[in-house]
C-alpha cells in the first residue's frame, strides 16, 4: 500500500503568491485525499490556536453592494476597502478581487484593520438579514475550520477515515494573561488575547465532539512555560505517544477498510477501479468537446459498414494536442448511437494509469472486462502467468465474442504513444490486424517523430484504416474557448478577446487552446496581461515561469525534474531543468529514495541555505521495503529503482542490489511475472559489460515452462535458478555465486516442505536450449522459418497459425481463417509472405509483416476418406505460381491474382502420393500409388509423358524430396526402396531393410538423409545421384520421425517417437554429440532457421528452440548421453552406468565430475537392466540372452556370470534387497532368488536359492526382494502379488488398473509402494498384506509413475512421474508434501541420508535434500498453483481391509509353483576378454 502525506501548507511561500487562493487550494487537496484514500484520509492536530481568519479573496457583486451601503457612512473605511478590492468584469457574475499590497507597504496592521472593517460591515448586514450565515462565515472562519468543516463536519460518514488529535494544557487560562509574549493562543496585533478566536475555537471543538466523538484523541499536558520546546521531557513524551497512537489508528483504519472490501467480494476491485478511472477521465474531457460532428458521422458510417464483416482496426492520427483524446472519449459516449444498436464499449486512455501503461496490464484488464460483460469465463492463472498466452487469449476472446452474435464490442485505445511496449518497437505483437464481425478496435496515435504511427503503418497496410484528426475551424476554436470560460464562470473583455486571438492566429489546435485558456482565465478585467506564447513550447515555458513565481525556482526545478526522471513529462522540462550533470544527479536522488538509503533514521549531510554550514540530519524518508506485506509488493520501487540506478551511473549497485539479488528477483517475478523480470535484464544488460548478467537472464528465460505450468511461486523460482546456475558458482562467484548463496540461505529458513537442490541438474544457461514456448492452441502440425525477418510460423491442429518473432520470443500475429488442420506452410518473398494448406481444402496467402490474409483459394481436394491425405506445396517465385497436390488433383495458382493457371485431374483409384516441380526443366513430376510417373509442363499443365517405374515393384511411395540441381525426385517406398526419379526415367538408389519414413536434403543438396525404422542413413551427392556417405547408420531407441541438416552440413539433427532429439557430427563420421529432450511428445517436426532449430509435435502445443552452434556451449561438465533410461549410479553419485551409444552390448561408465566417459564394460549381449550394490561394490547387468553379468566396481578382473534358467530367456528386471544380501531376477514368468554373501576378493553369489513360476498369461513388469526371501512382483496387466519363497505361497494384493511401473520395499522391509502408469500409488503393509493408502495424482499433464523409493528413515516416499516432476508424500498419512517440476523424466530415484539422487533423461544427476518441519501436515498446499491437478488419498479401516483381503490363499497349485532349490551348481566365474 502506497501511503502519501499531504501537508496543506507545503510549497506555499505566502498568501499573495497564490493570488489569495490558499483556502481553495487546501480544500481541493482535502477532497482529493478523501477520494483516493482507502484508509486514513484526514488528520488534524488541534491545540489552543484557532488560526488567522483570512480576508475573502473574492466578493460577489451583490454582497459587495450590501457592504458598500453599510460603509457609506464611514468614508475612510469605504476608501480602505475600495483600495484593496477591484471589480473584475471578466468574472460571471462580476466579482471584486482582493489586491496584493504594493511594494514597501506595511501590510499587517492595515490588513488587520481591513478585516475588522469587513467584519463589522458583515455583522450589521447579517443582523439585518441581508446576507446568509454561510456568507457571514467567510469573514469569521479560519482556514483550519474550513478544512475541518470540509473534511469531517460536512458529512456523517467521514468518521472512519479521519482522526483529530486534541492537545489540552492544564491551567492554561491562568497563565495566558500573565505574559503577552506567549504564542500558544491567538492574539491581536497589540498582544492582547483574541477572545473571538478563542470562542470560535471552543465552538469548533464542541462541534467535533458532538458530531464525531470517535475521531477525537485527547492529550492532556501539565502547564510549563517551555512546553513547546522539543527538549522538554513532557513534550517529548507527548510527541512519542501521539506518534504511536497515530500508527495504531492508521493501521486500524486501513485494515477496517480492507476488511470491508473483502466482505463486499471485491476480488476484482482493481478492475473496477481501472474502469472508473478511465470513465472519470473521459467525463472530464468531453465537457468542453465541440465540433468534429462531420468526422463523428463518417466514423459511425464506417463502423456500421464494418459491423457485419471482417475488417481492419481504425487509427485516428494527428499532431499532439489536436484533440484525439477528446474525440475518442466522445466516440465512447456516442457509440450506441453511431452503431445503431447496443454495444459493449471498452475505453482506455493509455498512460494515465499504471495498468494502462504497459501491454501486459492493458490486455489483462481488457480481457477481464470483456469476459465479465459477455458472461464468459475469466482468464485462468496459467494464461495470466505468460504474456504470450495472454495475447493469444485476447485474440481468441475477440473471435468468441464475434461468434456469439450478441452486442457489438468496441475497444478504444487512446494514445498508443504512451504505451511502454509500443514506443520504439518494431512491431505491436498483441495488436489484432483483422477484427472479426461485431468487434471494432479504434486506436489513436501522434503523427510526428515518435515513430508509433510509423510502426502501425508497417503492420496495418490498408490506407483506409487511417483517419486524420484535423485542426478545429476558427469558429469551433472560439466555441471551445467559450465553453471553457463558461465552465470556469469566466468571460473576456473585448480587449482581452482581441489579445487572445492575436496570440492564436491558427486557432485550431485544442491543446494549444487549452494552454491559452489556462492563462486567459486568470486575466482580470482591470489588468493588462502580457501577450500569450505563440507555440506550445513557449506556453510550457510560460507555465513553468508562473509556477516559479508561486513556489520558487528551486522547488519547481526539483519537483518537475524528478517527475521527468520518472518518465512522465515532456521535453520542455528536461531542457529547462535537466541539462548536463543535473540529470544523473536527479536519478541518483530518486535511486536513493527508492532504495531507502536515507530512511529508518539514517542521517545525511546537508547544507541549508539559511544556516550556511553542513548539518547531519534525519531526512525522514519513508522506508522502501520490497514487500509491504506477505502479499503486497512495492510495485513502484520494483519499476523505478533499476531505471534510476542505471541512469545515475551506479552500475555496480545495480548489479548487486537488483540483478544479483534473489530477494529482488523473486519479488519482481511474483508480483509482475517472468516478463517483468526479463524486461529489467533487457533494460540493463546492454549497459553492463557482464557475462554473469547474461547467464542469469538466460536462466530466467529457461524457467518459462515451469512458471507456465505451476505459476510464479517463490520456491519454484529459487529451485529453477539454483539448479541452473549452480554449475557456475566457481567460475562466476561475484554475481552468480552470490545468487546461489542467497537461494541456499532462503531454503534453510523455508517453513514448508521443500526439495533443496544441492547441485546443478537443470539445463544450464549457455547450452543449446534457447527457449520453450507455448500457445493457446492444439498440437503443432506444420512449421517454417522466415530467416530474413527472424520469424517462425507454426500451423496447428485447430487451424490456427501463429507467427513468432524469435528475436523477441513472442507471438506477433495469430492468423485465423483455416477451419481444419494446417498441413503445410511455405515461406517466401524474403520471409515476408507465407502460404498454407489445410484439411479444409483451402490455400491461404498471408502477409507475415502485417498479419493480414491476402486471399483464400478453394483448392477442391477430395473428400473421399479412402483417398490418401497427402498435401504438397511448391512455390515458384520466379513465375509467381504456387502448385498444390492433394490426392488425385494438382492445381497451379497465380500468386498475385489467386486465379487458376491450370488444373490436373488424375485417377481417383491411383492417386498421386508425391509431387515436385523441377524448375530447371520447367517440368511438373508426380508419382502415383501404383508407381506411375507422370510429367507435365509446369507452365501450361500439358501432359508430356507417363510411364511405370522400372526400379520398383509392388511398393507404395511413402515420402519424397526434390533435388533441383540434379532435376530429380528422390522417392522412398513402403518396403525400403529409395529411387531417383527424373524426366528421363528412374534408378534404384538403395534398398533399406524397413519402410522409408522420411527423406530430407541439405540446403546445398549435397547430402541426403533417409529415415527407416529406428535408423537414419546418410548419402552424399555424386555424378550419378547419391552414394552412401557413412558405413554406420545413425540409431535411435525408437522410430525416427524427422531430420534436418545443420548450417554447414557438419551436423544432422534427428527426432524420434520417444521424444528425443539427437545431434550427430557428420564431420566425425556420425559421432553422437548431444541428446536433447523435446516437449515430452514424439518429435515429428524439426525446422532450421540459420543456427536455430525448432522442434515440435502434433501432441503438444509447446515447441522448443535450440541453438546448436559451438559458440553457445556452456563451460560446464557435459551431461551423460543415455537414450535408454537404463541407468545405474554408484559411489554416491560420482559414476553413472548406461548402455553405450551405438553398441548396447557395452556399459558406459561416466564420470560426472569430469563430464566424460571413464571406461566401458563388454557384456557380449544387449543390456536390458542395470542394478548397483553400493555396499557390495557390484554392478549387475541383465542381458537379452538371459545372462546376468556381475562386475566388481573396484576391479575389472573377475566377472561373475549367472546363467538363465532357460536358454535365450531375456531378463525383464532385477532387484536387490535393502541389505544387498538377496538378488531377484525376473524373466517373463520366472523369478530367480539368489544369495549374496561376503567373499574375497569379491562377494560370492550363491543360487538360485529359490525359483518360482507365475503361471499367468501376462509377463512380469517389476519385482522387489526382501531379506526373508519374500518377493513382491507385478504383472503387465496391473496384478500385484506377495510371494513367500520359504512357504511357496502367493498372496494376491489388490490389482492396479494399469501396468505397474515400479515396486519398492522400505528400508525396514515393513512397507511396499507400487506405482502404475495411471498415476496411482499404493502403500502396502507387508505384515498384514493389506493396503494402507491409495494415492491418485490426476492432472492435465500427468502420464503415470516412472519410479519411486522410500527415504532412508522410511518417513517419505519420493516418486518420479512421467510428466517430468517429482512428488514427495508422507508415509504417515499419505499427505502430498511437495511437487517439483524437473523438466526431464527421472529414470530412478536413490535415497541418501537427507534426500535422494536421481539420474534424468537430460543426462544430469539430481542431488537434493528434502527439508520438512513436520511430515504430518503441510502449511502450504503444494498444488495451489495447479488449476487442474488433484491429489486424492484413500485410507481403509482395519475391518474394511480384512473384508476386502479375505483369508490368505494357497496358490501353490494354482498360480505359482515354487520349491527350494538344492542345486549344486555354483556361480560361474569367467574372464571377459
List the SSEs and their pairings:
Elements: H1 22-36, E1 42-46, E2 58-60, H2 61-71, H3 75-84, E3 85-88, E4 95-98, H4 107-127, H5 133-140, H6 143-153, E5 162-169, H7 172-175, H8 195-211, E6 216-221, H9 233-263, H10 269-285, H11 293-306, E7 314-318, H12 324-339, E8 343-349, H13 359-374, H14 381-384, H15 387-403, E9 408-414, E10 439-446, H16 452-459, E11 466-468, H17 474-487, H18 494-503, H19 510-520, H20 536-551, H21 553-565, H22 571-577, H23 581-595, E12 603-607, E13 614-618, H24 635-647, H25 651-659, H26 662-672, H27 674-684, H28 691-702, H29 704-710, H30 714-725, H31 733-748, E14 754-757, E15 769-774, E16 780-786, E17 791-796, E18 801-805, E19 810-815, E20 822-828, E21 833-838, E22 842-847, E23 852-858, E24 871-876, E25 881-886, E26 889-894, E27 900-905, E28 912-918, E29 923-928, E30 932-937, E31 943-948, E32 957-963, E33 968-973, E34 977-982, E35 985-991, E36 996-1001, E37 1007-1012, E38 1015-1022, E39 1025-1028, E40 1034-1035, E41 1040-1045, E42 1051-1056, E43 1060-1065, E44 1071-1077, E45 1085-1089, E46 1092-1096, E47 1102-1107, E48 1128-1130, E49 1135-1140, ...
Parallel strand pairs: 1-5, 5-6, 7-10, 7-11, 8-9, 9-10
Antiparallel strand pairs: 2-4, 3-4, 12-13, 14-74, 15-47, 16-17, 17-18, 18-19, 20-21, 21-22, 22-23, 24-25, 25-26, 26-27, 28-29, 29-30, 30-31, 32-33, 33-34, 34-35, 36-37, 37-38, 38-39, 38-40, 41-42, 42-43, 43-44, 45-46, 46-47, 48-49, 49-50, 50-51, 52-53, 53-54, 54-55, 55-77, 56-57, 57-58, 58-59, 59-76, ...
Helix pairs in contact: 1-6, 2-4, 4-5, 11-12, 13-15, 17-19, 19-20, 20-21, 21-22, 21-23, 23-24, 24-25, 26-27, 27-28, 28-30, 30-31
